[in-house]
TrEMBL record, chain A:
Subcellular location: Cell membrane
Annotated source species: Deinococcus deserti (strain DSM 17065 / CIP 109153 / LMG 22923 / VCD115)
GO MF terms held by the record: branched-chain amino acid transmembrane transporter activity
GO (cellular component) term, any one: plasma membrane
Classification via CDD domains: TM_PBP1_LivM_like
Listed name of the protein: Putative branched-chain amino acid ABC transporter, permease component
Keywords: Cell membrane, Membrane, Transmembrane, Transmembrane helix
Topology versus the membrane: Multi-pass membrane protein
TrEMBL record, chain B:
Membrane topology designation: Multi-pass membrane protein
Alphabetized GO MF terms: L-isoleucine transmembrane transporter activity; L-leucine transmembrane transporter activity; L-phenylalanine transmembrane transporter activity; L-valine transmembrane transporter activity
InterPro entries: ABC_transp_permease, BCAA_transport_permease
Transmembrane segments: 14-36, 43-60, 80-107, 119-140, 168-192, 221-247, 259-287, 299-321
Protein location: Cell membrane
Keyword Membrane: yes
Record's keyword annotation contains Transmembrane: yes
Protein name per Swiss-Prot or TrEMBL: Putative branched-chain amino acid ABC transporter, permease component
UniProt GO BP: D-alanine transmembrane transport; L-alanine transport; L-isoleucine import across plasma membrane
CDD domains associated with the record: TM_PBP1_LivH_like (cd06582)
Chief location category: membrane
């Protein structure tokens, strides 16, 4: 058991983390908004935690709070991500489809260039020597942070879908103009979904900085946006389990293929191509269809006339 | 800013901006026909540079599976004069065009055939990009490859002239880049605006259904579009590679993203828009003061963000009214 944990602990935590990031993109997608901003908020949350945990300015707070400083970093990361999410979301969500995707790519790139050049983010080197959360001795112990967060997020998503808000989001996804006409204010709900995703990504980032021990501009890049988008689309974008399954699977594939060494990223690319071709509803969507086969065709109202020679 | 500095920056900006323009045209051509952004375009850019490098040098010294293989043991027929370098560039771009055609067949056509969500085509093209980029890394390693200085023959290294007491230096490479891009734009403008192929392409872009009713083979013109797109992307890759060296398999990633900024700035799907967008971003980057040059890579995205907020259809784009 110990062997297993020490070998795969890091991977398991990474799988949970991938599922959470997938969910952060899933929330705006529920309102039909393709946002690739998650890595930006993830990077922001990570920097918040990294700075609060290492910068001399915060030494007083760290000494006063002890381990209590870790929840504080989550809170600050969530707040900052939420505020930034609002600031970016309100104007950006006037855009539709591919334009919103491009605007969020621009947002992530701007954050990346900033973090690469600012002093407080440590420039290209980044911030290192981030203390382990709650004095964890081993990386697998982060399961105790990411695990409950994932469970809470899933519960929240589950409840949200069944609430008035969730129905409004779905209405906007299916037909924004019709939803608007029915008195569902699209912008308000879209911004709400976007901010929820941003806050989640920010918290994940703030938990990940101690986990990785170091934080730099590589954490929030276009590549990460794509990876997270792939989690959701390959897993399934219409079910809360989709992003989790997709995240876990696409994080595990390169690990399982490790023996292929240099070929594994190539295989990873092929997986994306093949999966988007053969699993248009994602893995979870395909499983659902297996479990609940399509209802039999309703018999035609009139039996077809018999053809006699 | 002094006048000499102004001239220098403008020249630098025009050279890089014209490459952005022809690179971004590749995106915009595909977008205008399929309404999809081909995220593998950056990888095609990288490939174009590598194809030309292979033709000119014939071998890769650093590492990768191709190490030690020498295509031209007696010296490459494609190096040593400006003319043969030009030929290598042309073949490199054609090969890149063929790769783009392959991408269409593998990543886009099956999606179209199934009427899949355009988002999935996007993911599929990203998968192809991942395959291509890592294949390059596997074959030739991750090092920078510089075109040898004799590759384009006895071309004078730079053009220098005095303005006041300052010297303005324009590298020959910059002039070549600018001229080649200009010629490409003229040819493309002619093909699309004046020829029968261009007319058919515009018809397909306008409405594939109607175009096919009129007897235009839509699939064939989509292939032509992808070929043109890959050709332009590959050519841009070689041009940038000549100026800065071919910087590894991830060479095209930044250009891929900036190209997106270019086409959105100009107006998605608009050909003059891509040109204008390229020049605007090229010039804007060239005028970033030296003290802030680290932020240069953010300029394109800041412009993109601003334009999306102020004028989402881009500078020259048409506003699309959503159907009710």
């Amino acid at each position: 058991m110990n062997d297993f944990v020490s070998t795969y602990g890091f991977l398991i935590v990474t799988l949970l983390q991938a599922g959470l990031l997938g969910l952060s993109l899933y929330f705006p997608l529920q309102a039909g908004q393709l946002s690739l901003a998650s890595p930006g908020f993830y990077a922001l949350g990570g920097y918040v935690a990294a700075i609060m945990l290492t910068h001399p300015t915060f030494a007083g707070i760290r000494d006063a709070l002890g381990h209590g400083v870790f929840p504080l970093t989550w809170l600050v990361a969530a707040l900052l991500s939420g505020v930034l999410g609002l600031v970016v979301g309100i104007p950006a969500l006037r855009l539709r489809g591919i334009y919103l995707a491009l605007a969020t790519i621009a947002f992530v790139e701007i954050l990346r260039v900033l973090s690469l050049n600012l002093q407080i983010t440590g420039g290209a080197i980044g911030i290192f020597g981030i203390p382990q959360a709650f004095g964890f001795q081993d990386r697998w112990q982060y399961v105790f942070l990411f695990g409950p967060l994932l469970v809470l997020t899933l519960l929240f998503a589950y409840q949200l879908e069944r609430s008035r808000v969730g129905r409004a989001l779905r209405a906007i996804r299916e037909d924004e103009l019709a939803a608007d006409a029915m008195g569902v204010p699209p912008t308000r709900y879209k911004v709400l979904a976007f901010v929820i995703g941003a806050v989640l990504a920010g918290i994940v980032g703030s938990m990940s900085a101690p986990f990785l021990n170091t934080w730099n501009a590589k954490q929030g890049t276009f590549d990460a946006s794509i990876a997270i988008l792939a989690f959701v689309l390959i897993g399934g974008s219409r079910n809360i389990w989709g992003p989790v399954v997709g995240g876990a699977l696409l994080t595990a594939v390169p690990e399982v293929l490790r023996f292929l060494s240099d070929w594994r990223l190539i295989i990873n690319g092929l997986v994306l191509v093949v999966a988007s071709l053969y699993l248009p509803q994602g893995i979870v969507g395909a499983l659902e269809r297996l479990r609940r086969p399509r209802p039999p065709e309703r018999p035609a109202a009139l039996p077809p006339a018999e053809v006699r020679p | 800013m002094e006048f000499s500095q102004l001239v220098q920056n403008t020249m630098n900006g025009l050279a890089i901006g014209s490459v952005y323009a022809i690179f971004a045209l590749g995106y915009t051509l595909v977008f205008s026909i399929l309404g999809i952004i081909n995220f593998a375009h950056g990888a095609v850019f990288t490939l174009g540079a590598y194809f030309t490098y292979t033709l000119v040098v014939g071998q890769f010294e650093n590492n990768g599976l191709l190490k030690g293989i020498n295509l031209f043991p007696d010296g490459s027929p494609f190096s040593g004069s400006a003319l043969s370098f030009g030929l290598a560039t042309l073949i490199g771009a054609v090969l890149a065009g063929l790769v783009a055609v392959l991408i269409e067949r593998l990543a886009f056509r099956p999606m179209r055939a199934r009427g899949a969500d355009p988002l999935l085509a996007l993911v599929s093209s990203l998968g192809v990009a991942l395959v291509l980029v890592n294949l390059i890394q596997l074959l030739v390693g991750a090092e920078i490859y510089n075109f040898p200085s004799n590759a384009y023959g006895e071309v004078k290294p730079a053009l220098a002239f005095q303005i006041g007491d300052k010297t303005v230096v324009i590298r020959t490479v910059q002039i070549i880049i600018f001229l080649v891009s200009l010629v490409m734009l003229a040819i493309l403008g002619y093909v699309i605006g004046r020829t029968k192929i261009g007319k058919a392409l515009r018809a397909v872009a306008e409405n594939p259904g109607t175009a096919s009713l009129l007897g235009i083979s839509v699939d064939r013109f989509i292939l032509i579009t992808f070929f043109l797109s890959g050709f332009l992307g590959g050519l841009a890759g070689t041009l940038v590679g000549t100026a800065f060296g071919v910087a590894g398999p991830y060479f095209g990633v930044t250009y891929g993203l900036k190209g997106l900024a270019v086409i959105v700035l100009g107006g998605l799907g608009s050909i003059p828009g891509a040109v204008l967008g390229g020049l605007v971003i090229g010039l804007a980057e060239a005028f970033v003061p030296a003290d802030y040059s680290a932020y240069k890579d953010a300029v394109a995205f800041a412009l993109l963000f601003v334009i999306l907020l102020v004028r989402p259809q881009g500078l020259l784009g048409k506003a699309v009214i959503q159907k009710v």
